[in-house]
Structures are given as C-alpha cells and as structure tokens.
Amino acid sequence: MGSVKVFGPAMSTAVSRVMACLLEKEMPFQLLPIHLPKAQHKSPDFLKLQPFGQVPAFQDGDGTTLFESRAICRYICDQFAGQGNRSLLGPEGGGAADRARVDQWVEAEAHSFNPPSSALVFQLVFAPSMRLKQDPAAIRENEAKLRKVLGVYERRLAESRFLAGNEFSLADLATDKAELLTSRKNVARWWEDISARPSWKKVLDMRGAPPA
Amino acid sequence: MGSVKVFGPAMSTAVSRVMACLLEKEMPFQLLPIHLPKAQHKSPDFLKLQPFGQVPAFQDGDGTTLFESRAICRYICDQFAGQGNRSLLGPEGGGAADRARVDQWVEAEAHSFNPPSSALVFQLVFAPSMRLKQDPAAIRENEAKLRKVLGVYERRLAESRFLAGNEFSLADLATDKAELLTSRKNVARWWEDISARPSWKKVLDMRGAPPA
C-alpha cells in the first residue's frame, strides 16, 4: 500500500481544505506540488487525475484517485472513520440527519460564502499583487453578498459553537479569509477557534515551506 | 409521523433536483409552493427553515429540517437507503470509494457545469422573457467555459454510460439545460437517457401543474 498523495500547491484554498482534513484525521500524506504558472495542471498526466485541470487531485494508498476537494474530504472521513477526529461528519454514532446537518453547512460554504469571499480576495489581495486593475463594481457587489452571508453565520454562531453544532466539523474546515471575518462578534470568536486548531497551523506551516 | 415536505417552486432547478431524488427513491412528498415574486422565501417563517432565504427547504416526516439541495439529496439517499433506487450514491454494497466517485461528479456539476450553464440560461432564456438587456460579453465568457466542461463530460461519457459509472446516480440528477447539451454525441445520448427517466418526466409534469 502506497502513501496518500495530494496533488496541488499548498497555497490553494481547495488544496488546504484537503490537507487540513487529512491532518484532522491524523493520516500521513505526501504533498506533490503542481506548478500552476507552468500549467502543470493542464498536462496530460495531471488531466488523467483531474479531467477539468483543477487542483487538488488525490490518490489513496490503494490507488483510488479522486477530484473535487469536498468530495475528497467526505471520502477521507468515510475511509478513515476510525482514526483521528471522528466527528468531522457529525457526532460519532450519529445518524443520517447528523451527517446532513454538517453537509448542509459544507454546501452553504461552497455556494453562499465562497463565491463572494473568493471574488473579494482576488480583487483586494491578488489583483494589486499582480498589478491588475481592481473592479470597484465587483468589490461592492461581493461585499454586499458577503455581508448577508456573514449575517447568517453570525446568527447561527450565536446558537452553537461551530456551524453544524457544538463540535468542529467538515463545515468549519479551511476558511482562510481572516481579513473578511473579524468584524462580527460570533464569527470572530469562531474564526479564532478554527484557526487555532493544530491541523490548520500545520497547513499554514506547509504553505510556508512545502515539502519537495 | 408527518409527510415529507419540499418547500419551493417546482420551476427551480434546485427544487427539481430534490423532487427527482424523492421520486427515484419512491418516497411520497408534499410540494409546498413558495412564491418568489411575493418574496415568501424572505419571510420570517421561511427563514427559520432556510436562513439564507433560498429554495428549497426540506422537512422530513420526523420534523428534521434541512437546506441546500445536494445535502438534502444525500440525506434522502442515506435515510431511505432501503427503498426505490438503491444505487444513487454508488452500487449497492459498495464502499467509500464508490460513494466518492458519485460525489466527485456531483461536485463537478455544482462547481464546473452549473455556474456557466445557469448564467447562459439566464442570459438566453430569462433575460429576453423579462425584457432585460442581454450581456454579450457574459454570454461569450460562459459559452467558452461551458464548452470546456462539456468536452470533459463528452470524454467521460465515452467511457461510461453515466457520469459516475454505468448506473444512474445522484450525479446525473436534474440537469434541465436541454438546449445546451445536444451538440456532442455522448452528452446527447446521456441527456436522452436521463431525461427519459420516469422520475424526471414526473418532475416536468409537476412543474406544469404544481399541487396546491
């Protein structure tokens, strides 16, 4: 049985999501960097792993390959159910409804939180660093969308410690948008909680010095 | 035990996805129409079911409520595992990798196929019917994106009958974008296959005459 492999640059949010999940599950893995500026994600070999040419791709020790970070995370939780953090898909011994309560917040992150927050990070962080022109209308539009989403998060996080309940779950994994999150009381408290986890600190370390 | 309830207009793709899933599982349900032009999805009662004010919301017979259509569909498959179509989350008796193979194509639909196809349906179908101005740049950009995605689907569907394998699964549910899909041989064959299913025909019937 080979080792678990994650293909992609640690800097990618989606790659970080999978890394954080593996670290929560205490599952050793190899990170195989994919160089996006050199278009390694569009190479024929990589397209066999990920037909859309996106990161990450994943290979299990038995050769199973998968793509799409949230599908990979659910797989890791199912496949390595007995080790590490056992409540990422809901409280241990819980039923379909517990799993679904996590899943609905994973989906909310994917469809409500992530689109405006990614657009804002692009406009506010990447565009200046790449000397691209910022788009004020896009900034305004996405700020308004994100404000609504954070309002929902704030009310939810006044009821429970984490998004899906009082346990850290897949729904809280990898939200690396610090600068957007600290103006609301409960969101700020949640952000401090989730970014203080050893798994996430390790992800940030690996971003600084990815293994060769 | 009450009946299963789906809240939302049948015309919504996300509502149709949940209806088609329930029909595949042979699970009777009530469709409770939510009138979007009257902003019923922003009413305090609806926001208790769906804090983002989006459709659908879902209530199980035991009172469990959920939101996010793909999370609801996974829940329906888990909760009613023993009835109706038993291979929506992968072949019966399969393992975590089989489920993940379905899940990666559900995610690909959500993140790669759906954004450009929804944008195009808005520009090409809704904008004219609402007398809104079409955006030629948005049309070009989303056509190019969709063309790439359909290229991946075409290659995949040359290898297997459905997206996740040779069985119809959650990944094939509710792709109601006919006009965008018929120019590629295998995509067209797949589209005919999935839109001929009794569950989907029933969804289209219900769209025509939603129950009161």
Query: Tell me, what's the shape of chain A?
Result: globular
Helix content of chain A: 40-55%
| Subunit organisation of the chains | homodimer
Structural class of chain A: alpha+beta
CATH C-level name of the largest domain in chain A:
Mainly Alpha
CATH topology of the largest domain in chain A: Glutathione S-transferase Yfyf (Class Pi), Chain A, domain 2
The radius of gyration over CA of chain A amounts to: 17 Å
The sequence of SSEs of chain A as H and E is EHEHEEHHHHH
Interface with most residues: A-B, 33 and 33 residues
- First and last CA, distance of chain A: 21 Å
What report would you give on this structure?
2 copies of one chain form a homodimer. With 212 residues, chain A is α+β, with helices and mostly antiparallel strands. Chain A has a 4-stranded mixed beta sheet with strand order 2-1-3-4, with helices on one face. Chain A contains 7 helices and 4 strands; from the N terminus they run βαβαββααααα. The longest helix of chain A has 34 residues. The model of chain A has no long low-confidence stretch (mean pLDDT 89). Chain A is globular, with a radius of gyration of 17 Å. The first copy, chain A, folds into 2 domains: 93 residues, Glutaredoxin; 102 residues, Glutathione S-transferase Yfyf (Class Pi), Chain A, domain 2, CATH 1.20.1050.10. The interface between A and B is medium-sized, with 33 and 33 residues.
